Every structure is written in structure tokens, then in C-alpha cells.
């Protein structure tokens, strides 16, 4: 793993069902600062599993994950890292149904140093950035799928993470909303210089990233920078 | 948003379930408050009742099971009366009997004329010590339609009512009083008393009182109590206290278990949400804190409502058929402090297991749960 990489996986293996299903099989992958990486591969190839392990939501059976060259293993370290530096967006939006858009975003700020007023301001600014300034006081049930996903993106961004993982963020959206959300993620990546790992089945969208990593049966079978030839 | 605000919003999502759990805890706390208050009410009522009839010390037999069932030879009274500092001794025999389907506390007194003369009379006169004459308390008189000149059958004998007493305590207002000799004969307890009440010379200071008390207990096979401590030696009262405490504890634990069940279901339903909170950087400690706060909010609401229920229930003691006439109850902070001191930690304990369950899974597993 190179020292410039922000986050890297080394020899990561993850199996289920007592070893009968091998989801990841010796994966090495380094994500650099400020780059956008599309993670592609057939269904069941291990993409979600890789995201879970790279964000500490799951533990590898073998191998390790490094943040700026430092191995991260305890639950506590991972929670702190997710709080400070890693944002995650899922295919399902995972918003709390009884909280407004504004409150759902504030959820990510609770327990930090920000006081209530700062929390409100930061959450409002994040919602503003994803184009939902007018929807702050709406409940998730009062919003479209695309809007809900943008609330989830605001929640992931509100702490200014250094890296953002998005696991099929447009998977539940119609094509118009999918394009809006995809464009938003890519814009945010450029604008803030945040690293982006985007899991997608959409080839066209993948090609708008700096780099495409393809998984197959738990192996990295292709790792290509845009503008390079297929390796 | 604050943790408490978020916890409240989570509880409000399942308002009916939350309210039922609050009610369960409230009933448990209410039961505990009422039962403990009942036990204290009994002790205090008897203490105040004895104060009111002019007792300062109560001299009762050692090793008796209960105040009313105790028996002492009347002859001991003379030895107590002879001690320095004693103003007057009254041998008193008490028993419950039933008249017209109502249980009545009857007392027989061997007071000196000065002792009898302190009896507050609303009507009529004091009984003649050589005759079957009796005083009845005003509540008893009202309940049974009694008045001076009428008769009442007690212990299969007939007594003439000569006066109505006007005491202040519930116990005394429902009591019938006759001369000791008549009571001994009627209750088939010749030569016996339940205990002696002792009036002390007014000039005694606290040290002299304590010395006298020790002296009586040293020379005779008796225990000497203040009016407020009389029930400390009463086995029936100890049983009442033990049952009250045990039932209260069971009620409080069952309240905590219902809280545990509610939170467990709530945590299970929210498994994915909890996974999401871990994903956005919530530490295990903070997630645990959220669940415990939810438990404590339910517990606080339940305890508050429970104290209200308990105090209201205690107000109904007066109308309990068996004991209503003998105790009166005024709520006090201490009646509530004890149940609450148990209930709140129990609620926190009831929340601890669900909270642990909430952070036991890897977040990835939690997020995948249906
Ligand atoms: N908790 C689990 N228990 C058992 N098998 C699992 C579990 N999680 C993942 N797998 C298996 O591991 C493999 C990789 O799963 P993963 O979810 O990473 O695929 P994916 O590439 O994200 O697929 P998709 O594009 O459909 O989301 C699959 O065969 C899947 O069935
Ligand atoms: Mg997947």
C-alpha cells in the first residue's frame, strides 16, 4: 500500500456459511485522496461486502484495512473514523421516518463538538447543497425517492468526510432521479476534493469516474484509470 | 436535536405500546407506594391513637405475638405504679369483637379518676366502674345508630351506652371503652390486661424518662415502648410489613421486566436503524445511551404516574371494610422515595440488556436484517 493512499485493503478475505461462500478472496485495493472510483461487477461479486469491510461495518476473516497506513481494527476506532472521515450512502436511504429531513441530517452531528445551533446551521447548509433547502421540515414519507436519497447524501456529507462510499445509490431510483443523484455525487466529489467509491451497475456512470475497479467472484479482476487501456 | 429529544421521538412512534408500558410500571410503583404507606399508616395510626388516650409508655409482655393478643397479669400494675416518676398506670385489655356484623375494637381501662376525666365526651357521662356501662366513639355511634341510653351487645353481654367520645384519631373514634373489670368478665380474661399505659410525672426530663423505662424493663418480664414503637414488637405487624415489602418488590421487578420486554421488541424492530446509526458514526456507547435514555424516560413517566396512583389508592384506605375505621393516612415524601429508589435503577437495568443487544451485531449484519 502506498503512503499517499487514504484507505487501503490488503489481502482481505471474507467468507460466509462456514467458508462455503467466499465473498472476497484476497482483495488488495488502495483508494487515493480525492479520486473517484467506480466499483463494478456482477451481482454477488462482492461489491457490497467490500464496502462494508472498507468502512468497518464488517470484519474481514483475514487481511486488514488501513487508514493512512495505520491498521484499523477495533469497533471504537472504526466508529470514530466513520464519525470524522468516512461517509456512507446506501441503496436504501435508511432515514428515520419520524424525523424531518433536517433532523435526519442532524443525527450525524449528535455527540460531536457542535452545539445545537451549529448543528442546525450545518445540517441546513448540507440540505441546501443537495438542493433541498425548501424541504427541511418534511418527513421522509413526504418526499420522493430521489429527495430521500439526497437527504441521505446530505447526512453523509454534513461532517465533511474525506471519503464517501455510495453502494448503488441510484439503484432504487427512476432514470431522471438517478441522474440527478449521480451528478450530485460527482459534483460533490470534484467540488470538495473528497474521495468517492461508487458501486454501480451503470457502465456509463462508471466511466464518469477517474477509475474503474471490477470485482468477480471476490477477486479484483480489473483496475483501470479512465483514459488508460483495459489491463 | 438532543438525545432526549430523539429518545422521545422513538417512543412516540409506538405511542400505544409506550403508554401501556408506562401504565404497567405505574401500577407497580402505585402498588408499592400504597402498600408501604398502608403499613406505615397502621403503625402511625396506632401510635397516635395511644398518644391521644394519654399513654406515654406502653408496657407489654415480652415475646407476645401481637399488641392485642398479648396478656399480662393485672397485678404487675401496682409494681409499676410504685416506681419513682410514675404518675399513673392503667391496665388495659383490648379485643376485637363483632356486633351487628361490624368488627369493633373494645377496650377496658382501669384508670384513676384523673385518667378517666381526660376522656373527651361529646355527649353523656363517664361509665360507672361497677356497672355494665360503656362509651362509644362518635364514628361507631354514627355507624350503628348508637346514643346514650341505648344498648349494645358485645361478647354476648349487653352494655348500656352512657356517653359518646369525641377523639380525633380514626382508631379511637371507632372504639368502645368500658371499665377494665367489666371487660375482663365479658372477654373471659379475669385478672389479665393486654398492656399497661403509663403516664409519667410532668417534671421528668428525657434522661429520667430513659432511666425509668430501663428500670421497668429490668425489674419485670416486659418490654417498654414509646407509643410510636409499639408495633415494633408486634409479629402481626412485622408480617404485614414483610408482605408489603415482598409484594412491592415483586411488583417493581415485574414492572422492570415489562420495560425490558418493550425495549427488546423496540430494539429488534429497529435493528436496521441501529445499523444505520453505527454507519453514520455513532459509537456503541452512544447507541447504548440512547436505548437507556428511552428506558429511563418510560421509567420516569411510569414512576410519576405510579406515585399519583399510589397516593390516590392510599386515600381509599378509609373505605376498606376491615381496617378502614382504624387507620388514616396522609401521604409523605418518604412513602414515595423508597419505591422510586428501587424503581428507577430497575428501569435502567431493564434497559441495559436491550441496549446491549442493540450493539451486539456487526453493523453490516444489522443493516441486512429484514
Ligand atoms: N451475510 C451473508 N451471509 C451469507 N452470504 C452472504 C452474506 N453477505 C453476502 N453474502 C454473499 O457474498 C457474496 C457477495 O455478496 P455482495 O452483497 O457483496 O454482492 P454484490 O456484489 O454487492 O451484489 P449486488 O450487485 O447484487 O449487490 C454473495 O454470494 C452473497 O450471497
Ligand atoms: Mg450489493
Characterization of the model:
With 231 residues, chain A is an alpha/beta fold. Chain A has one domain (33-56, 78-225): P-loop containing nucleotide triphosphate hydrolases (Rossmann fold), CATH 3.40.50. Chain A has seven helices and ten strands. Chain A has helices at 47-54, 75-84, 101-106, 116-129, 145-157, 175-192, 203-206, and strands spanning 5-16, 21-32, 36-40, 62-67, 70-71, 86-89, 163-167, 195-199, 211-216, 219-225. Chain B has two domains: 3-44 and 237-368, no CATH class; 63-220, no CATH class. In chain B, strands 1, 3, 4, 5, 6, 7, 8, 9, 11 and 12 form a ten-stranded mixed β-sheet that branches. Chain B has helices spanning 3-13, 15-52, 76-81, 113-117, 138-144, 170-173, 180-186, 206-219, 235-269, 271-279, 284-315, 333-358, 363-368, and strands at residues 57-61, 72-73, 86-99, 102-109, 121-124, 133-137, 151-154, 157-165, 175-179, 192-193, 195-200, 222-226. Chain B has 370 residues and is an alpha+beta fold. The two termini of chain B are 28 Å apart.
SSE arrangement:
The complex is a heterodimer of chains A (231) and B (370).
Chain A: E1 5-16, E2 21-32, E3 36-40, H1 47-54, E4 62-67, E5 70-71, H2 75-84, E6 86-89, H3 101-106, H4 116-129, H5 145-157, E7 163-167, H6 175-192, E8 195-199, H7 203-206, E9 211-216, E10 219-225
Parallel strand pairs in A: 3-8, 3-9, 6-7, 7-8
Antiparallel strand pairs in A: 1-2, 1-4, 4-5, 9-10
Helix pairs in contact in A: 4-5, 5-6
Chain B: H1 3-13, H2 15-52, E1 57-61, E2 72-73, H3 76-81, E3 86-99, E4 102-109, H4 113-117, E5 121-124, E6 133-137, H5 138-144, E7 151-154, E8 157-165, H6 170-173, E9 175-179, H7 180-186, E10 192-193, E11 195-200, H8 206-219, E12 222-226, H9 235-269, H10 271-279, H11 284-315, H12 333-358, H13 363-368
Parallel strand pairs in B: 4-9, 6-8
Antiparallel strand pairs in B: 1-11, 1-12, 2-10, 3-4, 3-11, 5-8, 6-9, 7-8
Helix pairs in contact in B: 1-11, 2-9, 2-11, 2-12, 9-11, 9-12, 11-12
Amino acid at each position: 500500500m502506498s503512503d499517499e493512499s487514504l484507505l487501503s485493503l490488503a489481502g482481505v478475505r471474507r467468507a460466509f456459511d462456514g467458508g462455503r461462500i467466499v465473498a472476497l478472496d484476497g482483495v488488495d485495493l488502495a483508494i487515493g485522496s480525492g479520486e473517484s472510483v467506480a466499483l463494478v461487477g456482477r451481482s454477488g461479486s462482492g461489491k457490497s461486502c467490500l464496502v462494508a469491510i472498507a468502512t468497518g461495518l464488517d470484519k474481514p476473516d483475514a487481511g486488514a484495512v488501513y487508514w493512512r497506513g495505520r491498521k484499523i481494527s477495533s469497533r471504537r476506532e472504526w466508529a470514530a473514523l466513520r464519525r470524522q472521515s468516512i461517509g456512507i450512502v446506501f441503496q436504501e436511504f435508511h432515514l428515520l421516518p419520524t424525523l424531518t429531513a433536517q433532523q435526519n441530517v442532524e443525527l450525524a452531528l449528535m455527540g460531536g463538538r457542535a452545539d445545537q445551533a451549529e448543528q442546525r446551521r450545518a445540517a441546513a447548509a448540507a440540505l441546501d447543497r443537495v438542493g433541498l433547502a425548501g424541504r427541511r421540515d418534511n418527513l421522509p414519507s413526504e418526499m420522493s425517492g430521489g429527495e430521500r436519497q439526497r437527504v441521505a447524501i446530505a447526512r453523509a456529507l454534513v461532517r465533511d468526510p474525506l471519503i464517501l462510499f455510495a453502494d448503488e445509490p441510484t439503484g432504487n431510483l427512476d432514470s431522471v432521479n438517478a441522474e440527478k443523484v449521480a451528478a450530485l455525487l460527482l459534483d460533490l466529489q470534484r467540488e470538495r476534493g473528497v474521495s468517492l467509491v461508487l458501486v454501480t451497475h451503470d457502465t456509463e456512470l462508471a466511466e464518469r469516474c477517474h477509475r474503474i475497479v471490477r470485482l468477480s467472484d471476490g477477486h479484483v479482476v480489473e483496475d483501470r484509470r479512465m483514459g488508460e487501456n483495459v489491463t | 436535536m438532543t438525545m432526549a429529544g430523539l429518545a422521545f421521538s422513538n417512543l412516540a412512534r409506538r405511542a400505544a405500546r409506550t403508554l401501556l408500558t408506562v401504565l404497567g410500571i405505574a401500577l407497580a410503583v402505585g402498588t408499592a407506594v400504597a402498600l408501604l404507606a398502608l403499613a406505615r399508616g397502621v403503625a402511625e395510626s396506632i401510635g397516635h391513637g395511644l398518644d391521644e388516650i394519654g399513654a406515654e409508655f406502653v408496657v407489654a409482655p415480652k415475646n407476645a405475638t401481637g399488641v392485642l393478643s398479648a396478656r399480662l397479669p393485672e397485678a404487675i400494675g401496682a409494681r409499676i405504679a410504685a416506681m419513682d416518676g410514675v404518675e399513673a398506670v392503667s391496665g388495659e385489655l383490648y379485643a376485637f369483637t363483632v356486633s351487628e356484623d361490624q368488627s369493633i375494637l373494645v377496650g377496658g381501662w382501669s384508670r384513676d379518676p384523673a385518667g378517666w376525666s381526660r376522656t373527651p365526651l361529646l355527649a353523656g357521662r363517664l361509665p360507672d366502674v361497677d356497672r355494665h356501662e360503656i362509651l362509644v366513639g362518635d364514628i361507631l355511634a354514627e355507624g350503628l345508630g348508637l346514643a346514650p341510653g341505648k344498648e349494645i351487645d358485645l361478647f354476648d353481654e349487653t352494655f348500656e351506652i352512657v356517653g359518646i367520645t369525641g377523639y380525633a384519631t380514626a382508631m379511637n373514634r371507632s372504639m368502645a371503652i368500658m371499665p377494665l373489670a367489666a371487660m375482663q368478665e365479658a372477654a373471659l380474661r379475669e385478672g389479665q390486661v393486654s398492656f399497661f399505659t403509663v403516664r409519667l410525672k410532668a417534671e421528668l426530663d428525657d434522661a429520667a424518662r430513659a432511666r425509668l423505662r430501663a428500670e421497668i424493663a429490668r425489674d419485670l418480664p416486659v418490654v417498654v415502648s414509646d407509643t410510636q414503637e409499639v408495633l415494633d414488637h408486634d409479629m402481626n405487624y412485622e408480617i404485614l410489613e414483610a408482605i408489603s415489602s415482598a409484594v412491592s418488590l415483586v411488583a417493581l421487578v415485574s414492572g422492570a421486566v415489562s420495560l425490558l420486554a418493550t425495549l427488546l421488541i423496540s430494539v429488534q424492530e429497529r435493528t436496521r436503524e441501529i445499523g444505520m446509526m453505527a454507519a453514520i458514526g455513532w459509537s456503541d456507547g452512544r447507541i447504548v445511551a440512547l436505548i437507556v435514555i428511552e428506558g429511563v424516560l418510560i421509567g420516569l413517566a411510569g414512576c410519576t404516574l405510579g406515585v399519583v396512583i399510589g397516593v390516590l389508592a392510599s386515600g381509599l384506605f378509609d373505605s376498606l371494610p376491615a381496617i378502614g375505621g382504624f387507620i388514616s393516612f396522609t401521604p409523605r415524601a418518604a412513602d414515595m422515595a423508597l419505591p422510586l429508589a428501587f424503581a428507577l435503577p430497575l428501569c435502567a437495568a431493564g434497559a441495559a440488556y436491550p441496549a446491549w443487544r442493540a450493539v451486539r451485531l456487526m453493523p453490516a449484519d444489522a443493516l441486512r436484517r429484514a
